[in-house]
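Thread title: Can someone regenerate the structure for this chain?

I was given the following input by a collaborator and told the matching structure tokens would be attached. They weren't. Posting the sequence so someone can regenerate them.
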Amino acid sequence: MNKLQRLLQSKILILTICAAGIGGTFQYGYNISIINAPTSYIQTFMNETWLERTGVPLESNVILLLWSFTVSAYPLGGLTGAVVAGPMAVMLGRKMSLLLNNVFVIIAAVLSGFSRMAKSFEMIMLSRFFTGVNAGVSMNIQPMYLAESAPKKLRGAVALTSASFTALGLVLGQAVGLRELLGGEESWPFLLASNVVPALIQLTALPWFPESPRYLLIDRGDKESCISALQKLRGNSDLSAELEEMLAEQAAVKGQRAKNPWQLFQNPALRWQLMSIVVLSSAMQLCGNDSMYFYAAYVFQEAGIPQDKIPYVVIGTGSCELITSVTCNMIIDYAGRRPLLLGGYIFMAGWAIVFMVALSQQTQISWMPYLSMACIFAYILSFGIGPAGVTGVLPTEVFDQMSRPAAYMICGSLLWFNLFLVGTAFPFIVKSLAHFCYVPFLVVCVCTALYVGFFLPETKGKSFLEISEEFKKRNFKARTHVVFYKGPEEIKSTML
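Best answer:
Regenerated them for you:
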């Protein structure tokens, strides 16, 4: 009986990860991919609706403009969600924020599901905005919730599951969008409304699991609830060392209130932490990984793959990201954060060069389309093995409890703004630079690799206080020996 009880308790953390992920970052990947399959059907619906309303059909450029508004509503909603995620995490807690976040996607599902019946393409635009808000909140709060709930030795792997769920959502969205399933002309409203299913699963499952122990102790000051949450997550293992570490962190931020983003920018003690997350969060979208999907269909067609089979091959690109994110999940706490980030960006820079050469010779050399196709898979694999997951882990590790929500607000805002920027600018970059359109992304990858190599410290296996002390040394080099030698002693004496 005791053995069975220990086995069940050891699974609580895994089930918490699944419950948080299915309605969290899974939705981000899923909702990015499901909009691709019904593009032509929705544009036809817009034209028919307008014709029925006014008696005049829409011009092709107006249809394209309306479609652009529909697509850009998603990152705009994501930016809104990223901004509200910080206050939600502080006031409502991590778990409750994730639960309430499902309201946005339920509203979105109702709007898109009934849009054709109501003959309103505006409902689709609005639904994409609410879907974006949901993704913006979950992209910030889920990695925070999981990293705060995980033991130190598994913190990287647990927080990285956010990237694995994003990739899983991407692949399932591509699969469900096939015309044999929900990607047909008659079923596209059901495809857009299918995101309600993960939301309902999370609403059913997540309430059974505990809140973040760190949030309960440090933000709420509720030691008993913290211990209860730890016991559920860790089972019968000894909690004294972990609790002592949390109490030390509580003492270090005693008397402080949750900071806002502007306070982070004003605080010289957070200079390098802030610079690190700004560089890495920006590079996440500016590295060109999402733009590889833009080229995928063209490259696969040039390689001789029949047009009707290309959607199935595109699923392979999403599967690459899923495989590498799961692999990264298994090795991050052994390999460390820096090697995965550094290796990922170096390989991406290399493959960007090969890809541009292959594109320039696409029509000249018969086997070049196959090299281009290999580059797409290799680029996505390189992104998945490091930048895709590690970037989301770092804000939890390099900021203390009072700064963490604001740090995620900054990260999320940059992520969504740059997603919008790349989506808007990439067609013009392709038009201007043609086969050398990946030069800007190459520069981003090289610069990011240099930053990681020279300035980013390793956080593997370190407590939050140890990481904080390392950054303090960087932020105040001249005063390191005077000020920060006494810090840990004061914290220890406070505990005693």
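The first helix runs from residue 2 to 10.
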